[in-house]
Amino acid sequence: MSGVLNTGAERWRADFQLRPVPSGFAPQEREYQQALLLVAALAGLGLGLSLIFIAVYLIRFCCCRPPGPPGAKSPPPGGGCVTWSCIAALLVGCAGIGIGFYGNSETSDGVSQLSSALLHANHTLSAIDHLVLETVERLGEAVRAELTTLEEVLGQRTELVAAARGARRQAEAVAQQLQELAFWRGVPLSPLQVAEDVSFVEEYRWLAYVLLLLLELLVCLFTLLGLAKQSKWLVIVMTVMSLLVLILSWGSMGLEAATAVGLSDFCSSPDTYILNLTQEETGLSSDILNYYFLCNQAVSDPFQQRLTLSQRALASIHSQLQGLEREAVPQFPSAQKPLLSLEETLNVTEGNFHQLVALLHCRGLHKDYGAALRGLCEDALEGLLFLLLFSLLSAGAVATALCSLPRAWALFPPSDDYDDTDDDDPFNPQESKRFVQWQSSI
For 68, phi and psi rounded to 5 degrees? Predict the structure, then answer.
């Protein structure tokens, strides 16, 4: 994954400006979706061929079987091999179930990491908006209340009133600069909503695969039980259930194959696609998006100028307030209270400003971006490949079992056979019939 990120960064070093989406982007996207649908349709073709092969095999077995000699009770030759081949196929299916549980867990971990990264990014963006809003409100309250009161108190000294008005202008300028830093305010795309949607879909996907795995596990176990007990009704029921599992396995294989192909193509070069998609959805400038998604020395900080001007303005306000405190308080004692309140507001503003500088740096959001890519392109993609292997093993094992179960079923003794009853049992129907004949002969 680091290699993918480095490759994307190197590709953007020469020209880090975001390129506009070409006019043929929508047709190309439609063509790509059609290609993914074709990949998914290949699984349907495999299902159809499997059903045709099984149907032809069963028809040949039922209609073209040579009649056995009358009264023969010995199993036909090769019957034991058929039973053991069915058992081997079911054991392979059980091994595939284990692979499926591992793949389902890996996919869930990857999607959970993606959701966590989106939630952390949303927390960072919300913290930036909250700090900007709180700081601007504090400065606005200070301008409306304390500075207005201070100008009224110092009305007799023109130079002191000019200094207070200078502090007012500086505070208004800082508030204006800080408002421009809340770049995500009003953006329609919400990382929180995306994370909730992803978690919602993943919850049902995980549950569906768990039910599919448990269904196949029960089919394998009860089929093995039916073969061991030589229970015809259980084998018949499990044959029908195996047909259902075969259809579900091929269906899940098509979905997994299309998703894995699309995800692998996305993970080979994610930067360009995500940058274009984010700009289209949010309307943010390319400078801001390049700064956070790439976060290297080739990309300049788009907020650096505003942060520098705000820091200088805060330092100037602090200097002006210290000068007013030295000159105005001895002559106007009533000016001490608004000056102390202004200094407290200024200290809180400087603390919020330092937190804002740390949050606006690209390291935090770029780390979330990298974590989301790792979860999606490493764990989730690896889990999808294991799920694809599970579906392949499941389809092969169930298809083999469907071909072997009718032949194994033919080897079972008939249900009305009384060979297992005791000949000396007085309740044996055969023994009762012989007893009646013996009584009539006497």
Answer: -85, 165
Joined together, the tokens standing for residue 36 give: 């993914």
Contact 375, 150 (CB under 8 A): no
Is residue 16 pLDDT above 60, yes or no? no
- Predicted local confidence at residue 62, as pLDDT: 67
pLDDT digits (tens, 9 = 90+) for 142-163: 888 888 888 888 877 888 888 8
- pLDDT of amino acid 11: 39
Question: In this predicted structure, which of 46-50, 61-65, 386-390 has the lowest mean pLDDT?
Answer: 61-65
Q: What does the pLDDT look like over 384-404, one tens digit per residue?
A: 999 999 999 999 998 888 887
